[in-house]
Amino acid sequence: MNISPTDPEILDGIRSRDRTILVYVYQQFFPMIKELILKNSGSEEDASDIFQESLVVIFEKLKTDELKLTSKFKTYLYAISRNKWLMVLRKQRTKPKMVVDTQLLEENHPVYMDDLTKHEQYQLYRQHFKRLSDDCRELLSYFLKGHSLREIGELMGFSEKYAKKRKFMCQKKLISSIETDPVFNELKVN
């Protein structure tokens, strides 16, 4: 790519999975993230993982039209990556003392922790949802798609009353599973 794309072009390219833009983003910004992770007790593999996870956060925000960029794309990506790495260090029980590029953080921008926390919470939910029994996943999926308990009962061969009881039991099991995960407490604090 001869000409550098603008931030809106980068966001559009990520949203549409444009290979040229994705290669540009990787070539342009991965070295910055790699340097951040290597300076802060990480490996090249960690840097690659954090970079990919940060792009996934951005992609998911773009898919739902929730991303309102208030800084340069470079700064946003750096902040997401930095916060993701801090979360990794916290999970490892390492006292996070980050060496950061203050020039990037001097721009007046929000700390994007909310975006990251929502993403991490959703990942935790998905992880525990997958552990539920097949019928619990099916029942809760119908419920999340807006089916009434009567419809769910019909679809699954239950009475409406049993569908209601089973939904309650499945939700309780999911909530309990999530709340006993150590990651839950980490995300709750943030």
Summarize the structure.
It is built from ten helices and no strands. It is mostly helical. The protein is elongated and about 60 Å long.
Protein topology:
Layout: H1 7-15, H2 19-39, H3 44-63, H4 73-91, H5 102-105, H6 113-131, H7 134-144, H8 149-156, H9 160-179, H10 182-189
Helix pairs in contact: 1-2, 1-3, 2-3, 2-4, 3-4, 7-9, 8-9
Question: What labels would you give this structure?
Answer:
Rna Polymerase Sigma Factor, Chain: A, single chain, about 75% helix, about 190 residues, about 0% strand, mainly alpha
How would you describe this structure to a colleague?
With 190 residues, this protein is an all-alpha fold. The chain folds into two domains: 7-113, Rna Polymerase Sigma Factor, Chain: A (Orthogonal Bundle), CATH 1.10.1740; 132-189. Helix 1 (7-15) crosses helix 2 (19-39). The protein is 73% helix and 0% strand. It contains ten helices and no strands. It has helices at 7-15, 19-39, 44-63, 73-91, 102-105, 113-131, 134-144, 149-156, 160-179, 182-189. It starts with 6 loop residues before the first helix and ends with a helix.
